[in-house]
Amino acid sequence: MSEIARHRRGGQAGRRAERAAAPIVQKKYITREIPLYELLNAEGLEVVHEESMTILAEIGIDFRYEPALKLWREAGAEIDGQRVRFPRGLILDIIKTAPREYTQHARNPERNVVIGGRNTVLAPTYGSPFVRDFENKRRYGTLEDLQNFIKLTYLTPELHHSGGVICEPVDVPVPKRHLDIVYSHIKYSDKPFMGIVTAPERAEDTVKLAKLCFGDAFVGEKTVLTSVVNCNSPMVWDGTMLSALSVYARNNQAVLVTPFIMAGAMAPASTAGAIAQLNAEVLAGIAYAQLVRPGAPMVYGIFATTVSMQSGAPMMGTPEPAQMIYVATQLARKYGVPVRAGGMLNGSKIADAQAAYESLGTMIPTLLAGTNFVLHSAGWLEAGLAAGYGKFMLDADQIAMLQQFAKGLDLSEESRAMEAVREVGPGGHYLGCAHTQRNFKTAFYTSQIADNNSYEQWEAEGAKDANQRATEAAQRLLAQYEPPPLDPAIDEALLEFIAKRKAELPNAVT
């Protein structure tokens, strides 16, 4: 190896060591200083809105949950079996009680997030049964994996929310799994987190754990959970989701009310038609929550992909889902409710070029559209079937760039840099001028994972691809982890409740 190569390699190693030793400074949720991008004008938006109102009034939504049918009947909807049709104006009147924004409280008040307005809150991926591990092998997720991802999220400054089921801990019995998931979020992070929605009793257990953590009175008045329920598109709200939604709404806890749209399979094979159906489904869900408890915080949820007409597989990062994000966020603002959309969505099996361009093909519209809550911001692979350690770190690197972009352009005197232009003059260079010396460490975003060195240096360091570098970065970050403080009395109460509930629950679903 040449003397120059050794010098460069040593310098890079020193910079890495310096970064690793630097304290991690958590960032506040994004408050966007950039303009919104809106795809439709007012007339076009009204066309989509009216089609949704027609779906609600003439076709209707199935509510497969008797308590919901009772509430809708009392509210003046038309009930035919499980089909609910909504006279025009009814839904919009009901959702007026939903707040435009709300604060989700974390057990560390410095980590509280405000969801709505110009704010964007980022959370990691959710729901993957598989992980792509440190050896880049695909296998089922474990409780240790879930806890690793929670720790990585806690250590990632640009992730403002701990999320929920980042990966499924399949080594824990399904009826007891929710207890370990919620406890892990409370124990290993002090950021806000999500609840469990797979059964109403699991939602109830989540609320009880939250009360042990925050106190009964606090949870009675404040929102400490933001969870997610999915509509069974097309146009069915089932009992499992509605009963969990009821638990959280009744306790004043927030929910991302989200149809699961795969246009061409679960919605029309057209972008405008899919948006109209999605809008009808989500409005029906939010309105139901307001019947349960007027004023309960709810988020207009969007999860939108298209389906390959050749294979039936979901497609992400393509133009049509981006259009759905732009229009649906416009509709949410029209109705005055916070909105969830997007994420680093992709269909790739590994963290490769496809994963990168599909992820940003979804995430850039997510930011520009003015999304308030972003699930799946880091780690998503294989259309959500896998959570990748390397992909998590690659995504974290990208969302750090997007957070920087969302600040807008600095036009301060220091940023305009006329002092530097005068000092250097024609024909000079800026490397040694006073302005550069003051600002060289913070002037531009520097990726912690991308390799911008010479070919020779890259080869000398092992010729590693981006996923290898990212996976190693995840391991280094986990080595830095120290748990946030947790009151021992609270910890003891949580563990006692969990032990009691586990003794009551079976090991298998019956």
Q: Would you mind describing this structure in some detail?
A:
By secondary structure, the protein is an alpha/beta fold. It folds into two domains: 46-93, no CATH class; 95-405, Alpha-Beta Barrel (TIM Barrel). The protein contains 19 helices and 19 strands. It has helices spanning 3-21, 42-59, 66-75, 90-94, 143-155, 174-188, 200-214, 216-221, 239-250, 271-292, 319-335, 353-368, 389-405, 413-416, 418-424, 434-439, 455-460, 466-479, 488-504, and strands spanning 30-31, 61-64, 78-80, 83-85, 102-104, 113-115, 119-122, 130-132, 138-140, 226-231, 236-238, 254-263, 298-301, 303-307, 314-315, 339-340, 373-374, 380-381, 386-388. The strands form five sheets. Strands 10, 12, 13, 14, 15 and 16 form a six-stranded mixed β-sheet that branches. A hairpin with a 4-residue loop joins strand 18 (380-381) and strand 19 (386-388). The longest helix is centred in the middle third of the chain and has 22 residues, at 271-292. It is globular, with a radius of gyration of 24 Å. The chain starts with a helix and ends in a 6-residue tail after the last helix. The model is unreliable at 1-8 (pLDDT under 50).
Task: Record the SSE blueprint.
Elements (H helix, E strand, L loop, with lengths): L2 H19 L8 E2 L10 H18 L1 E4 L1 H10 L2 E3 L2 E3 L4 H5 L7 E3 L8 E3 L3 E4 L7 E3 L5 E3 L2 H13 L18 H15 L11 H15 L1 H6 L4 E6 L4 E3 H12 L3 E10 L7 H22 L5 E4 L1 E5 L6 E2 L3 H17 L3 E2 L12 H16 L4 E2 L5 E2 L4 E3 H17 L7 H4 L1 H7 L9 H6 L15 H6 L5 H14 L8 H17 L6
Parallel strand pairs: 2-11, 7-17, 8-19, 10-12, 12-13, 12-14, 13-16
Antiparallel strand pairs: 1-7, 2-4, 3-4, 5-6, 8-9, 14-15, 18-19
Helix pairs in contact: 2-10, 5-6, 6-7, 6-19, 7-9, 9-10, 10-11, 11-12, 13-18
